[in-house]
Amino acid sequence: MLAGALLAWAGGAQAASLTVGFSQIGSESGWRAAETTVTKDEAKKRGITVKIADAQQKQENQIKAIRSFVAQGVDGILLAPVVATGWDSVLKEARDAKIPVILLDRDIDPAGKDLYLTAVTSDSVEEGRVAGTWLTKTVGDKPCNVVELQGTVGASVATNRKKGFDAAIAPHANIKLVRSQTGDFTRAKGKEVMESFIKAEGGRAICAVYAHNDDMMVGAIQAMKEAGLKPGKEILTVSIDAVPDIFKAMAAGEANATVELTPDMAGPAFDALKAYKEKGTVPPKWIQTESKLYTAADDPMKVYNSKKNLGY
Ligand code: AHR
């Protein structure tokens, strides 16, 4: 069934110059904006025409964009799915039109696995685990109350980053997750939710903040500073993405750790699509990107400067 669907997608066509539709979530974070920039650059390098539809965080807009790409008869579709569920009908439409879909940076429910060609993502459970393990090692056996800023509700990466972090801290009775709420991956909401955590817990009762992305952490750092607290010193921080601003915060002693997520998801996706269209090569179902931990010990200003060429 799966092999049949994939062969139908391939269609045996030679793809001299491909046109690809990209349904992007929006621009909620610095990482997301960089992913869009990198996608344009990588398309240009390969002579691919890319049409980008910004969904402004709404799944309904993504569904409309995919339908429009299908109607235009594009050669392939890149989809960064805002949430994990609700894709079956529209992805079946793409499959019926023999247009391969590649997921970027987020997954859909496992039941939809035969509806896309491959997924270029990190192991987001592992990202949470790396963040949690860093915290357990840094805290040792001291008591530590942690607050968590979750990503968008229903997004695979939010579910998985929570899962991995929870698993890492579970064996450590001294570390307690006392508050957890969504900040929707944005700076503004990260700040707002952190302000409410500080109010509810009393700032000095909080030992660490875990944020599912750096943008929310940058907002949370601001909230802590405005409350007279010292993030990075009195309150530990660990987040995900490795955007330039978190390295600036590390250099200022206001952030402690981040787990890197590459914004170059499109490069491997375009390579897989080209090989598939031109040679019928079926890629692995998961093209995994690396998850690397950075701490304040990693010369943050050097990393900050090197990130400038990566689309930020
Ligand atoms: O899906 C990847 C996540 O989406 C990034 O960590 C976050 O910054 C973005 O909004």
UniProtKB/TrEMBL annotation:
Signal sequence annotation: 1-15
Main location as per UniProt: other
Gene3D superfamilies on file: 3.40.50.2300
PANTHER family: D-ALLOSE-BINDING PERIPLASMIC PROTEIN-RELATED, GALACTOFURANOSE-BINDING PROTEIN YTFQ
InterPro entries membership: Peripla_BP_I, SBP_2_dom, YtfQ_transport
Organism ancestry: Bacteria, Pseudomonadati, Pseudomonadota, Alphaproteobacteria, Hyphomicrobiales
SUPFAM superfamilies registered for this protein in UniProt: Periplasmic binding protein-like I
Organism of this sequence: Methylobacterium brachiatum
Family label: Belongs to the bacterial solute-binding protein 2 family.
Pfam families listed in its UniProt record: Peripla_BP_4
Span of domain Periplasmic binding protein: 21-274
UniProt keyword annotations, A-Z: Signal
Record's subcellular location: Cell envelope
Origin: domain of life: Bacteria
Name of this chain's protein: Galactofuranose ABC transporter, galactofuranose-binding protein YtfQ
